[in-house]
Amino acid sequence: xxxxxxxxxxxxxxxxxxRLSCVVSGLPMExxxxxxxxxxxxxxxxxxxCITSVNDHTHYKDSVKGRFTVSRDNTKKxxxxxxxxxxxxxxxxxxxxADLGPPADWSSTxxxxxxxxxxxxxxxx
Length: 125
Known about the structure:
This protein is an all-beta fold. The chain contains no helices and eleven strands. Strands 2, 4, 5, 6, 9, 10 and 11 form a seven-stranded mixed sheet that branches. The radius of gyration is 13 Å and the shape is globular. The N and C termini lie far apart (40 Å).
């Protein structure tokens, strides 16, 4: 049974940091790309970052470049999203998702086969 479980969300102030974790079970992680998405209230789910199965190549949404860093530890079957200098506009439910092989469009939800349940990130003063 495939499961993706996110954790690490919370309520923080602008400028603070959080590290999200996505623990993957039931998949050989080295063959899967893992994407991070977020969805704000009333908004669409959007791609934030991705680390691919090919040489751990990374992608980022423009608005998070320089602030967010995605990484993976295949031995722990975990993908991380380090989020620094958080802003109120980063407030959303964050999801991780798995796509077999390198995604054709990392920021599209359509290519991902498995999803986690999400973790809430709230940035507010």
